[in-house]
Design a protein that fits this description.
The protein is built from 6 helices and 15 strands. The chain is an alpha+beta fold. It starts with a strand and ends with a helix.
Length: 233
């Protein structure tokens, strides 16, 4: 097996249903099967229910992962109002349905603007944050709740409502590292007094990196196989 030291940043358009770790494993296994021994890591987790830009670092580029993890991120998505879920996204069943017919466009825009700026945010139970050696989502799926989840300082640089077709609100959001858009969707619904959850999410950029420059997992797998053939591995 040949060691390929240089490495690279791979821009992946992650599909819904894949975890970030699934993508890393797929790419790492493809390198191994192709006879190319290469480290692979990701530069910032993307939830399984979300699609869009995931940056992988390979080879020596893995040493630069920390520098990419701190970059601001831009998302586009849809929030469903008038109902909530325990996970704040589509992973768990809806509950608490109520009418949203009384909401005005002005109220919706005002609620979004009120969430802009810096504040403390507590990670959701359905997240990959560790608690005493166990992922929070593993505890959540067992019906357990960790009340003392440590809050983190985040910044919502912008929260733009791009369309409102109630009960759905379309948005574009620019946030700092560590911000959970699912929690912001929940907070948005709470500010409007009707509840809400993240119905759809797509990450469109990380710093200067754009999903428009990304390839599918299948496309990257094919490129690795071709690289191995061209190098005679």
């Amino acid at each position: 097996m040949r060691e390929c030291e240089a490495g690279d940043f791979l821009l992946v358009d992650k599909p819904v249903g894949w975890t970030s770790f699934d993508v890393v494993a797929k790419i790492r296994n493809t390198y191994t099967a192709a006879g190319l021994r290469r480290k692979v890591g990701h530069c910032g987790t993307l939830d399984p229910q979300a699609s869009g830009l995931l940056i992988l670092a390979t080879g020596k580029k893995t040493k630069q992962i920390a520098s990419l993890e701190v970059l601001d991120k831009v998302y586009e998505g849809v929030i469903k109002l008038g109902v909530m879920t325990e996970s704040h996204d589509v992973e768990t069943p809806e509950y608490g349905q109520c009418s949203v017919n009384h909401l005005t466009v002005e109220e919706i825009h005002a609620a979004a603007a009120a969430l802009e700026g810096s504040h403390m945010q507590q990670p959701p139970m359905h997240s990959a944050v560790w608690h005493k050696g166990t992922r929070l989502y593993e505890l959540a799926r067992k019906g357990k709740n960790v009340a003392e989840r440590k809050a983190r300082k985040i910044c919502v640089n912008s929260f733009e409502v791009t369309a409102a077709d109630l009960p759905f609100v379309h948005f574009r959001m620019d946030v700092s590292k560590g911000a959970y858009v699912r929690v912001l969707a929940h907070d948005f619904g709470r500010k409007l007094g009707v509840g809400g959850y993240l119905y759809l999410l797509r990450r469109v950029s990380i710093g200067e990196f754009s999903v428009s420059d990304a390839s599918s997992v299948t496309g990257i797998v094919g490129a690795i196989v071709r690289e191995a053939k061209d190098s005679g591995t």
